[in-house]
Amino acid sequence: MSYTVGDMVPDVLGTDQNGNIVKRSDYPGKSIALYFYPKDMTSGCTAQACNLRDNYHELLDAGYQVIGVSADSAASHQKFIAKNSLPFPLIADPDHKLLEDFGVWGEKSMYGRKYMGTFRTTFIIDPEGKITRIITPKQIKTSNHAAQILEK
């Protein structure tokens, strides 16, 4: 399965770093910036998370709730959040269910080595649950991602 612009997403998105169920309906009237990233504590993912953190109030004021997703465990997410003072939830998806549903889990290659991983992608979901925009791996700038989300 792979979602595209115009598709409706399910209400239940996953489980966060504290074991709480994350639902789209938990944020009434808000658009959701659901961002998928490869791994906690890596340089690019830290740059992206910190950029979203630094611009979090601007994103909230513009009507966005930020939710991150990676294949890391809840314990890893807790450390990542604590180390970087992240104000938004991170969904732990170690079984890759959400990653696969959104079509962002697949074969990658680095230095000639092939492996399975997450394609850095952000889905903008309107308050009714419809995907209105997708920021693809080639488009994402980790150090300026909040500005990309705020572009209409």
In short:
The chain is α+β, with helices and mostly antiparallel strands and 152 residues long.
Please tell me about this protein's structure.
It is a single chain. By secondary structure, the protein is α+β, with helices and mostly antiparallel strands. It has a single domain (12-150), classed as Glutaredoxin (3-Layer(aba) Sandwich). Helices cover 26% and strands 30% of the residues. The strands form 2 sheets. A 7-stranded mixed sheet has the order 2-1-5-4-3-8-9. A two-stranded antiparallel ribbon has the order 6-7.
List the helices and strands and how they pair.
Blueprint: E1 12-16, E2 21-23, E3 31-36, H1 43-54, H2 56-61, E4 64-70, H3 74-84, E5 90-92, H4 97-101, E6 105-110, E7 113-118, E8 121-125, E9 131-135, H5 145-150
Parallel strand pairs: 3-4, 4-5
Antiparallel strand pairs: 1-2, 1-5, 3-8, 6-7, 8-9
The proportion of residues forming helix, as a percent range, comes to: 25-40%
Which structural class fits the helix and strand makeup? Answer: alpha+beta
Strand order of the largest sheet: 2-1-5-4-3-8-9
Give a quick account of the main beta sheet: strands, pairing sense, barrel closure. Answer: 7 strands, mixed
Beta-strand content = 25-35%
- As residue ranges, the low-confidence spans are none
CATH superfamily: Glutaredoxin
